[in-house]
Amino acid sequence: HGGYITADEYPALVFYGVMCGIYALFAILWFIWCALYWRELLKIQCWIGGVILIGMIEKSAYLAEYEIVNRHGYKVHAVVTSEVFSCLKRTVARMLFVIIAHGYGIVKLRLGLLKQKVLAMGLLYFLIAATEAILRLNTKNDEENNRVLISRITLAVIDAAIYYWIFTGVVATTRTLRSTKNIAKLNDYRDFTSTLIFAIIASLFFMAWLLKSHFFTTCITNWREFW
After folding, report:
1. How far apart are CA 193 and CA 130, in angstroms?
2. Any idea what DSSP says for residue 143?
3. Distance in angstroms (rounded) separating the CA atoms of residues 67 and 62
4. In the chain, where are the structural domains located?
């Protein structure tokens, strides 16, 4: 393709270029919606815009890394920056999910003690996610490294605890909406619950496939599948 990038890394250049475009489209659409409904905006909707912005920066850093490799033939290690932004994006997204699940802006006007708990959870998740990312980047055979494995298991345990916290919040909020007969918001939370369940089931299937195909095999024969 007339550049320095290797054949196995060239599709990543295309992929992150497309992802930058998708995040830019999300940012434009979100800005338009916020401008149209600015009188009704909650603080949490500004934070959702922040998650989209962080995602755009994350993908831009990845794209910059592969673009510089392709043009000049050397790396600037922007992947570390993008991984940190990825951890930040996932952290803020989980914090928002917890806040939404507990009915902030719907059945609660203030977070109260939940605010400190969410901040503590976010800090803990970010530190462990960033540790896992840095270990993974700086370890050659990361599938066989015990430190990487321990960090991944720890991250999975915290994720499971966050999912449980989200579902308990959704159940409590749904119960409150049902008792107050707020049908419109109740339907929104039912859709929210269905989306969460689908996402978790999809994640579990992916994890099972990943373990079977990458961790419990001595030789990966299909290079396309590995990529």
Report:
1. 28
2. G
3. 9
4. 9-219
